[in-house]
What we know:
By secondary structure, this protein is an alpha+beta fold. The chain has a domain at 8-62 and 121-181: Alpha-Beta Plaits (2-Layer Sandwich), CATH 3.30.70.20. Helices cover 18% and strands 19% of the residues. It has helices spanning 22-30, 67-71, 97-101, 123-127, 133-137, 154-161, and strands at residues 8-12, 40-46, 53-59, 77-79, 85-87, 108-109, 116-117, 143-147, 164-165, 178-181. The strands form 4 sheets. A 4-stranded mixed β-sheet has the order 8-1-10-9.
Amino acid sequence: MEQKEKRLAIVVQTDKCFDCKACMIACKVENQVPDGYWRNWVKHNGGAEGLRTQFQPGQCMQCSQPSCVAACPVNATYRLPNGVVAIDPKKCIGCGNCVTACPYGARFRDPKTRVADKCDFCLHRLVRGEQPACVETCPTKARVFGDLNDPESAVSKLAAGQKLVTVNSPQVHTEPNIYYTKGTLLLDWAVTPTLPGGMHMPPDFWRTS
């Protein structure tokens, strides 16, 4: 039987996150992220009507239909066969199109080089057979990383065992590959993308379903 391409993803077990920010620090150190910028974050949700606050770790969603790829005029941003959305710094011209095209605010331009930057699942670690730094460092193992096309992987088993949700943009259907367990709260984590006037998007990118 023909083996499927890998589909790398992270499932975040929201009930296990307590906002220690170890994932943020590990990512910043591992990838030498410049001061004042982050490749990942932890947002706070809930807390209303007597419900406890729930924490939502986030990063580049490694989308199956990435708006950043569609917006890049020089193909510096591209999607690998394993699902990781990567950036070629040698091709990037620093135009910022991909930064504004991302509905999740997951990209920035390096203040010195002006090259676009974001989470890439620590590609250099994946090559060595290691997990992303944020996954490895999490003290409660809230983040689970693996191949969704491998039924024996930890992420596939977790996905099969419970209902997962994604942070969906209501205007740009990017099909994110960061998933969350619902936990004890039923939260609406939809975000509104910012696509300024004049942003060129290929006409076949927009989808109605």
